What does this fold into?
Amino acid sequence: MRRGYDIALSEERKVAEHMVEKMPLTSEDIRFQRVARLRETFPEVFDEEKVNFEKLREALGEEIATERERYGLLWASKSEAVRNIQIPSVAALIPDREASVEFNTTENLFLEGDNLEVLKLLQKGYHGRVKMIYIDPPYNTGNEFIYPDNFREGIEDYLRYSGQTDGEGMRLSTNEETGGRYHSAWLNMMYPRLFLARNLLRDDGVIFVSIDDHEIHNLRMLMNEIFGEEHFVAQITWKKRGGPSNDKIIGAVHEYVVVYARNADKAALKLMPRSKESKARYSNLDGDPRGSWVAGDLSANAKGGRFVASLYYEIENPETGQKHLPPEGACWRFSKERIQKLMEDNRITFGSNGTGRPKLKRLLTEVRDGVTVPTLWDSVASNTDARREINEIFGSNSTFETPKPTALMKQMLEIVEGEEAIILDFFVGSATTAHAVLDQNNKDGGNRKFIMVQLPEPTENPDYPTIADIGKERIRRVIGKLNEEENGKLKSGDEPSQDRGFKVFKLASSNFKIWDGAGASDEPEDLAEQLRAFAENVQPGRSREDILYEILLKSGLSLTAEVERLEVAGREVHAISGGLLVVCLEDHVDEELVRAVAGLEPQRFVCLDAAFDGNDKLKTNTVLQMKDSGIEFRTV
It folds into this structure.
């Protein structure tokens, strides 16, 4: 039976405004979350909602560093870079179905916009969900574009830069050494992005960062600060070219890939697959039923190591009676008793003709299923291979001079466990990472998902006006090629179909008018007029789908969450992730719709505040009805 929720008319407006919780239209407030964690761990250090540093010092005891001089990384405007992290984004990601492929079914994403704003927007829906990050950021060579560190106003500056609002716009500029803050400008760009990226990694996640000699030293220190020195995994040297440039005395033929883990103890990295050459070393000369083996040395300490007298003895060939001593200055690896047991187990070989020196049979079935990943990658692929790849896609007039080869990314994908993993790249360039993910899934049957983020940096190519356009087109062509190849093959009925699509979203201002009070008149009549303008708070020209995805992402759900359109009480609602969230974007709600939504039993319900048409009694009753049904209710 329905409860009565009648509220005295004179109190309706006050009660409604007090009871209805508005959905926040900003990204995750990083500072608030960190303070909340501190409060949970050290409630005793808070006085009147502020941190008492003296109490915190007492609580931490000897863990507090008191020395005035200590090891660390400082640079000009570092504090501003830290503050930049703490400013929530009020932007939105607007879907672009026309630029997408298989929008309704794919779980891959291409997000066009400034990656700092995008990373902020991903903090709720993708926190702790990304398995692997690869980035190839600007190397700060002084002659290439770097990401602007002057997007001080956040989304407003980006909109001017990308031509979405009036004004002269902004262009990326080179970071000349004569600028006075050459390294600082690069660090200010990288610090907030790496900090936010770490939040997105799973506990067993890893990040790979390409870099050259210009900033490798600063990058290592920066990542030590953000990830912790104890979570450093490796610094890989990648041979990018066959020989040095002729215009240098000492020419670099390498770059680096720096690897860190969110938690080094949990990072799930795999051995590299054994090559055909490695497997060819194993054979089965004596028909051993245990399979192929390779002969290994039985001696030890041949190069001046510790000599053990008890391990110096004769090994007798049981077939020929020939006796063998260790090489001069060496001894055997095992005791005489252990050797005898190995003999009985057919683990000692005397060569193909039975007259050679004793060797230990190492069975292929007993060695590790793979080989250790080296820190020198000198045969993976080169920049020449990368240029050939992109030229095959776009022709010889490609905008990119030095793209990365897909083989480099595939090497990383092969050593990262998780064929269902989310792979993030927020310096996409020509979208090599997306290309590599699609190819690797095709190779091993995996179902990896990618999230690509790219600034629409202008090009001089009329066919592809921005770098983002090139990246999207490359992915389309790779998908087309893979689909064409698959159409010519027989496919078993139980073979799962590959995800060969991607949703495109573009960074834009919020779909809602954000009231910040700046420039508001103090005159009652002017203020009343401004408030009336905000009564209808949806930006003109925005579709319901635009609004839906902003609500979805800022509610902590992913951009690829399942969306089902339902008709409820004659109105359209959207059920997200099987009813986890129900969103109604109709211009008008009534009691019948409210009861019908409650009957769906979602965890959360969101609708437009303006849909109540000023009916505060209905709004208050909706709050109570949803609370009575155990449903979290918010308006936007």
Notes: The radius of gyration is 31 Å. The mean pLDDT is 86. Residues 9-25+516-635 form one domain. The chain has four domains: 9-25+516-635, 30-85, 88-272+372-487+496-508, 276-366.
